[in-house]
Amino acid sequence: MIDLHFSPTPNGQKITIALEELGLSHRLIAYDIFAGDQHSSELGAINPNHKLPAIVDHEPSFGGAPHAVFESAAILQYLAEKTGKLLPKSPRARSDALQWLIWQAACLGPMSGQASHFIRYAPVHIDYAIERYSREQARLLAVLERRLAKSEFIGGEEYSIADIAIWPSRAAAADMGFDMTAYPHTGRWLLAIGQRPAVQRGRTAERAMPEKYSRARVDLTSGEWNHMFSPRAGENPAFLNSGNEISTSVDTSAGPKSQENQ
Q1: What is the number of domains present in the chain?
Q2: Hey, how many other C-beta atoms are within 10 angstroms of the C-beta on 215?
Q3: I want to staple 31 with a disulfide (CB 3.0 to 4.6 A). Which of 37, 61, 204, 241 is the partner?
Q4: Where is 111: in which H helix or E strand?
Q5: Which positions ≥6 away from 70 have C-beta within 8 Å?
Q6: What mean pLDDT comes out for the span 77-82?
Q7: Is the pLDDT of residue 148 over 90?
Q8: Is position 245 within any domain?
Q9: For residue 235, what pLDDT is reported?
Q10: Residue 143 forms part of a structural domain
Q11: Which domain CATH number covers 135?
Q12: What is the pTM of this model?
């Protein structure tokens, strides 16, 4: 059994999709990141960075005590290696797939996240930040488009964790109205992956993104801002200068809810 500490974001859906693809029994432990559930000491013992997703494998393939893994790319690689699936057997093809997995974790994910933050969440409109991260996101999406112009899947000829790492965020962007006209090969790949039954199971019901998570613009309360972005947000000069009062307290009294999935 694997415990999945989860919030219904594209990052979380990477792991629910992988678990469905691999047929691994798991228990979903849901967190409300707007309410600050992720700041609990229990999650901190699993992921010192207090971010989601994270897993605890109660039956690790190497034996011994339950094993915790955090960071979505590391979780995907761990699950692939545990099962011997979703990574090519060929050393060359495996290397290609892992390079694209790390590209998502080091490049596309962070840059897209920053663009999203300054467009959707920032209380102060900062032209430079929006332009900087939006341009870099566009450059990286062009890299992805060129890759998919010559390869059926991101890692190469086989569907792999590289596809799973990238697909949920691109699907979420498409759902929010992102124009795919300039990215026909990415659009082809997006539709093909979305037709997989395990992918559909991995982002429906309690795994689906709530409406609040998918708004084009999200206006947070001071408490939500604090929970989402920094327990010291009240000392951020941008907020001090804006006249907004930001609480620095973190309420972790609301515990996460769990649900088993076989």
Answers
A1: 1
A2: 11
A3: 37
A4: helix 109-116
A5: 46, 47, 48, 49, 51, 53, 54, 55
A6: 98
A7: yes
A8: no
A9: 40
A10: yes
A11: 1.20.1050.10
A12: 0.88
Answer yes or no: is 111 within a domain: yes
DSSP string computed for 215-245:
-SS----HHHHHHHH-TTGGG-HHHHHHT--
Helices (H), the chain: 10-22, 41-46, 72-83, 91-103, 109-116, 127-150, 161-175, 184-194, 197-201, 222-229, 237-242
Does residue 120 fall inside a structural domain?
Answer: yes
Distance CA 70, CA 4 (A): 10
Token pair for 163: 């596809």
Structure tokens at 96: 């290609």
Give the residue, 240 or 205, on which the prediction is more confident.
205
Domain of 149, in residue numbers: 91-196
How far apart CA 185 and CA 111 sit, in angstroms, is 21
Upstream peptide bond of 197 is cis (omega within 30 degrees of 0): no
Handedness of CA 233, 44, 113, 205 (dihedral sign): negative
Q: What is the mean pLDDT of residues 181-187?
A: 95
Least confident of 127-136, 149-158, 171-180: 171-180
Quick check: helix, strand or coil at residue 146?
Answer: helix
Nearest to 29 by CA among 14, 12, 44, 41: 12
pLDDT at residue 241 in the model: 44
Rounded average pLDDT over 95-113 = 98
